[in-house]
């Protein structure tokens, strides 16, 4: 069995010595790199812990927003949509990816591989588009508070969520199942790259550039621009509030308290956005650079960057729990099954 140099690059370092194959009986089997037990066991424990944190952390967010009526706000509906994307990533994408990363072979068939890759692209795209809509929500809440309730209604939020998921599904499933990712390099891919027991999303430069731009770069720059504008307007509002704090009595104090809550919410969601961009930017940079450099980036670093991106889905619930006292109260009530008490859904989570 002879292997194309690029195919070796999509295996792991060391496969050229003591070469193993995913399917020994197939003359088109992918090479397999067998990790030592001392490496595999700690990695399995780490990945399993990350998966459990992702699944149960986001499940807490989903239950909290769905159960407590006080959390039924446009912003939290968008957060709910984000948590669903993160939950699905942890539940259906990360477990098979863990086995594939550590066993370096895919044993679940070609159809499920396509579904896996499509779902991964869909959920990643859904996450960043959700964050883009959240930044728009925060813009109106902080910069145009008088228009917020008329501009960002529940109906508008539902439309945002539908657009988010529809666009994500079209990009994810359309690209993979229509083979748009290898549209202009199909012959090269099937002759030199495709093998039995592999499951990776191979992309031409045109495919990687267009998909990365639509799924990541355009929404990312929109978010950065909006939060940058919010930052300066919030600073100006803070100075104005400080100047007039003693002029209008209780009404002004109420407005000041509300404005502080909006600013804190915006700051927290900006941190969520920042963590997301920090986790996924290295991968999307390499995703565009790799085809330009004739696929010279080894698979192991790319796999590591993918997992750094996946771990972002475990961070979001930790950020909510750290910055939002009312989310912490909701989490505690869920964990100790207090949500089954009568009228628990009407609990005042923000009471002092």
TrEMBL record:
<keyword id="KW-1003">Cell membrane</keyword>
<feature type="transmembrane region" description="Helical">
    <location>
        <begin position="115"/>
        <end position="134"/>
    </location>
</feature>
<feature type="transmembrane region" description="Helical">
    <location>
        <begin position="155"/>
        <end position="178"/>
    </location>
</feature>
<feature type="transmembrane region" description="Helical">
    <location>
        <begin position="305"/>
        <end position="327"/>
    </location>
</feature>
<dbReference type="InterPro" id="IPR009132">
    <property type="entry name" value="TAAR_fam"/>
</dbReference>
<keyword id="KW-1133">Transmembrane helix</keyword>
<dbReference type="InterPro" id="IPR050569">
    <property type="entry name" value="TAAR"/>
</dbReference>
<dbReference type="Pfam" id="PF00001">
    <property type="entry name" value="7tm_1"/>
</dbReference>
<keyword id="KW-0675">Receptor</keyword>
<dbReference type="InterPro" id="IPR000276">
    <property type="entry name" value="GPCR_Rhodpsn"/>
</dbReference>
<comment type="similarity">
    <text>Belongs to the G-protein coupled receptor 1 family.</text>
</comment>
<feature type="domain" description="G-protein coupled receptors family 1 profile">
    <location>
        <begin position="57"/>
        <end position="320"/>
    </location>
</feature>
<protein>
    <submittedName>
        <fullName>Trace amine-associated receptor 1-like</fullName>
    </submittedName>
</protein>
<dbReference type="InterPro" id="IPR017452">
    <property type="entry name" value="GPCR_Rhodpsn_7TM"/>
</dbReference>
<feature type="transmembrane region" description="Helical">
    <location>
        <begin position="214"/>
        <end position="234"/>
    </location>
</feature>
<keyword id="KW-0807">Transducer</keyword>
<keyword id="KW-1015">Disulfide bond</keyword>
<dbReference type="InterPro" id="IPR009133">
    <property type="entry name" value="TAAR1"/>
</dbReference>
<feature type="transmembrane region" description="Helical">
    <location>
        <begin position="43"/>
        <end position="65"/>
    </location>
</feature>
<keyword id="KW-0297">G-protein coupled receptor</keyword>
<dbReference type="GO" id="GO:0005886">
    <property type="term" value="C:plasma membrane"/>
</dbReference>
<keyword id="KW-0472">Membrane</keyword>
<dbReference type="GO" id="GO:0001594">
    <property type="term" value="F:trace-amine receptor activity"/>
</dbReference>
<keyword id="KW-0325">Glycoprotein</keyword>
<keyword id="KW-0812">Transmembrane</keyword>
<feature type="transmembrane region" description="Helical">
    <location>
        <begin position="77"/>
        <end position="95"/>
    </location>
</feature>
<feature type="transmembrane region" description="Helical">
    <location>
        <begin position="268"/>
        <end position="285"/>
    </location>
</feature>
């Amino acid at each position: 069995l002879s292997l194309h140099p690029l195919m070796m690059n999509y295996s792991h370092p060391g496969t050229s010595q003591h070469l193993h194959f995913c399917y020994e009986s197939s003359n088109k089997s992918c090479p397999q790199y067998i990790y030592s037990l001392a490496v595999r066991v700690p990695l399995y424990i780490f990945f399993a812990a990350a998966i459990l944190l992702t699944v149960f952390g986001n499940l807490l967010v989903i239950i909290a927003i769905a159960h407590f009526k006080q959390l039924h706000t446009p912003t939290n509906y968008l957060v709910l949509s984000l948590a669903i994307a993160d939950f699905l990533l942890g539940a259906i994408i990360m477990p098979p990816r863990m086995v594939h990363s550590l066993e370096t072979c895919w044993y679940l068939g070609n159809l499920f591989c396509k579904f896996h890759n499509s779902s991964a692209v869909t959920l990643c795209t859904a996450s960043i588009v959700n964050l883009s809509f959240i930044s728009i929500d925060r813009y109106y809440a902080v910069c145009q508070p008088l228009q917020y309730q008329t501009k960002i209604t529940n109906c508008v939020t539902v439309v945002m969520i539908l657009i988010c998921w529809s666009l994500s599904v079209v990009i994810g499933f359309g690209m993979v199942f229509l083979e748009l990712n290898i549209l202009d390099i199909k012959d090269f891919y099937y002759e030199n790259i495709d093998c039995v027991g592999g499951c990776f999303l191979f992309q031409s430069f045109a495919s990687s550039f267009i998909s990365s731009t639509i799924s990541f770069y355009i929404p990312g720059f929109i978010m950065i621009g909006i939060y940058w504008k919010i930052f300066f307007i919030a600073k100006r509002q803070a100075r104005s509030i400080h100047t007039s704090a003693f002029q209008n009595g209780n009404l002004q104090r109420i407005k000041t308290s509300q404005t502080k809550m909006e600013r804190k919410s915006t700051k927290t969601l900006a941190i969520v956005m920042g963590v997301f961009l920090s986790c996924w930017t290295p991968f999307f940079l390499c995703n565009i650079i790799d085809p330009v450099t004739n696929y010279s980036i080894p698979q192991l670093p790319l796999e590591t960057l993918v997992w750094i991106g996946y771990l972002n889905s475990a961070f979001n619930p930790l950020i909510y729990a750290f910055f939002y006292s009312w989310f912490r109260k909701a989490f505690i009530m869920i964990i100790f099954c207090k949500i089954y008490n009568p009228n628990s859904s009407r609990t005042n989570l923000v009471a002092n």
